[in-house]
Write a structure and sequence with these properties.
Helices cover about 45% and strands about 10% of the residues. With about 1100 residues, it is an alpha/beta fold. One of its GO terms (cellular component) is cytoplasm.
Length: about 1100
Amino acid sequence: MPHPVTPPSQPTMIVPVKVADGAAPPPTQAEVSSLLDTIFTAKTSAASIDACYGLCELLLNSVGFRGLQQYGVLAEIKKAAADKKSGLRRESAQNLLGALFERFPPRQPISEAIFLLQDGGMVACALDALADKGSVVRDAAHYGLDALFAHLSAEALVVGLLPALTSYLSKATGKWQGTVGAYRLMQKMADKAKISAGTTKEQAQEQDILREAMGTKLARLIPIVENGMHDLKTEVEKQAHKTMTSITSLLSNDDVAPRTPLLIETMQHPSAQSLQKAIHALSQTTFVAIVTSPVLALLTPFLERSLNTPTTSQEVLRQTVVIVENLTKLVHDPIEARTFLPKLQPGVKSVVNRASLPEVRELATRALAVMDKAMGNDKTNVVERIAGDDVAKVLDAEMQKRGGLADDADVYKALRPYVCDMVAEDVNHRQLHRIPARIAPYLQSIMPGSAAHEAVAAAVHSFYVEEDHRKFGVPEKEDDGEVEIVNADFSLAYGGMLLLSHTNLRLLKGHRYGLCGRNGAGKSTLMKSIAGGKLEGFPPQDVLRTCYVEHNQGEDADISILEFVSKDPTIAKEGKERISAVLEEFGFTAGPEGRQSQKVGSLSGGWKMKLALARAMLQRADVLLLDEPTNHLDVANIKWLENYLKSHTDITSLIVSHDSGFLDAVTTDIYHYEPNKKLGHYKGNLAAFVEVRPEAKSYYTLSASNVQFKFPPPGILSGVKSQTRAIIRMTNVSYTYPNAPKPSLADVSCQLTLSSRVAIIGPNGAGKSTLIKLLTGEVIPTSGKVEKHPNLRIGYIKQHALEHVEMHLEKTPNQYLQWRYAHGDDREVHMKQTRLLSDKDREQMDKFIDVGDGKGRRQIEALVGRQKYKKTFQYEVKWRGFLPKHNTMISRETLLELGFDKLVQEFDDHEASREGLGYRELQPSVISKHFEDLGLDPEIANHNEIGSLSGGQKVKVVIAGAMWNNPHLLVLDEPTNFLDRDSLGGLAVAIRDFKGGVVMISHNDEFVGALASEQWHVVDGRVTHRGQTTIALDRFEDSKPGSAMASAVNSGLNTPNPGSSAVSSAVTSGVEDNGGELKFKAKKKKKMTKKDLKEREVRRRLRHIEWLNSPKGTPHPLDTDDEAE
């Protein structure tokens, strides 16, 4: 009520209620009339309200819901509510209606049907009262509606209250205040259905069924709410806009959600331009998530308008049919397809017949074929929805078996469709456990006997359980004889993001569970919560010992492996002998010369992962939490890990891995992150899971259908006219780590071109990453020479990719990219060892030199310019202590001979970076688009700190940073380690289509086989070339079955003769410019005739005029002597 009330147990008047063992005898008409008279004539609101509660108790304790009609209570309320002369009677009517709404439904649920459906229901009476001129009347009406809303179940809201609201809104005679109230209740219903944290399991179930049931009604709701958005009354328009925002939030579709505000804006201000803008925005959307009826209900009207409008342009028609095709491919339920797609089919057929462009007609024809397939025209095993009438037949039959109705045929006439529709909602959404509660309480008052209503409810429930088993199969029984070690119900959130809502995790001893889901779904967060003892319902460490083995191992570098493991207090008690024995089992040999004596920091990524596994075994873990365990492991060690996990049947494992072969080999069960924020359990390995969920086929193919990466094209390299021209070369290079007894690499010679697709293969610790670091300038070779094109830009992603961003965890990805390229250079390039000035380099800068120009010996201060000179470059030197007018041009060869290698390299890097960034604007909006092209949601890129991102999302940040300056050569050291299957497919397709060179280290045979046309094998510091290989194009989803492609021309690499262990001379096959120094010819100027000069002048003038007519901000085209005209 709108004000405090006296409890019903202490009424201000004498209420004739008799106390008895059963129900009290029915009151007389005079007693009820007396109470009604008191309600409508009381001098104070409090007295009237007390009388209202007294009447409720009198009826509930005797005749119950029957008294509402028998004594004319509802008729009296309607009569008083319409009394225009007496505000007191109108207020009292709403007080009584509010008391009935508050007290009857909890104790006699059958009254819901009376209030909502019988004789038009009472909701409209309360809504009309919202327009009353008296504020107390309006407040009482608000209270009553809120009380009724609070007592209705999710099913009752959808099949009872929602139809009452839509019926009211459809009336042209409704009052605008009532219209606002109806929209407000509809918004409240949608808000209640939203997934939220901090709810109980029962509340979460209510939210789920309400969200799913309302979603199926959106096709009817959206036009009604959209109509309100065009109302002339501002209050109605504003409330309808809020309601539309709430009901469209029920989509639970991450693809469409960012476009929803634009779509709502298009509804509110419909025009050809706004529709075109909406279609364009949808055409830029990569649809990944399953498309359900709520999404189709929202998008179908826009697509239908676009297809059927005669003035729609060919480009918009093309975008529309592409959207229709992409959406339809993701509709997995033929029933939903049959509901919406027939509305679009005539429009698509019209495009096939009338579109002027052949391309548009072809796209429309293809879309039609996809639509026919989606609607199940060629299928016979489609599971049909059931309707309330189907439930009614079952319900009537069961009631007849148990005596039928005792009386109240008129009430049952309204109750029957109400109950049957609620049961139908539960059956269609497979919430069968809710069926008894939708039947028994409603039949309790109208069936003979004390248990007949429960028997009917149980029989109907049993019938639909059997039907469900017939349609979907019988659920597998619980594993007999298995030991259950975990059965936890929990919710999981990270920051302000709800990852899992009221889901269950059940683990059996000895089972190996694969945990699958997209990047950012919360897989690692779940593991860390378990390891940290923060997951609700998961046994603590003293009951069940869990050990988290993650892919990011940051061990101490200055102590031996044996000492490092022994330092752990949970392991030290095992004793040195057992620790050493377990380490030896994992391949860490004992003894002074064994691997146990090596420093932890000297281990490769693969050995560090084995060390982490060894530590887990020493902790005697019951549950192993393995986060990307195959990261950095070579093929032999992955096989070893598979055998190890399968042989230890007493250990339960929960595994996150992008390696489909590994998951197939070891898993016994799969837990999958479902769209409704639940964990779905599937028995069997990954292959069995994909059979059940075909949309998960991306685990077996490299596909960009879910996540798309778009790499920017590399710029032009001056002097490089051929894709097979060497752009970087190593000659007789050796490298030894400080204090290491032997070289990591010895006498290596190799080279790369713009067409290179090279995979570097070898066991853990063989020197693969060292080879990469030498190529990219991360380290300086001990001997030999590394040459590269002066303008070459390299995008490098390290083995431990997160090292790139670990110093910037407080920044957003957008801020990180701004910091990295703020001064026109890549700051990470300046952190390489080949760019850091040593004491020797500083002495070199202080050295006096004479270049033979007659001005004596001077000191170089800096290089300030560079230009082409014959077949090389010459640099403008600024002299220390001299004005710029005394600057001198000195050739590259002269500066290198004088020992200024780093100075030249630094200036070359600056020029290369400036060239690559020439067409890049370091603006947040441009950076945001760059991140979107590389698979990172712009919302995350702009607002989430790097420290809060998942491992896969951080790798996308690293890739975006490496690709910002349009590199010519992409160097990837274990690029697949942190990416999920969808992102892995997107990366593979982007690399395949990249126009520059690629060199990669990866133990993922599927990834390497699909991309690399040649392999460099690194074993014991020696590099050998195993010749051309065939690219397995059939591993891409968009390739034809069985397709394969032979290698392009090899990158140059030394190839030993059979039986020769040493590296021979540089390769002479296939690649241009293999011998001699790496020089690039400048383009020779051609002397132009008068005719040539005149033609050039005309071209330049036309370009200038075109530039004057271009949008503001367009850069002026360059007029150069070597322009391509």
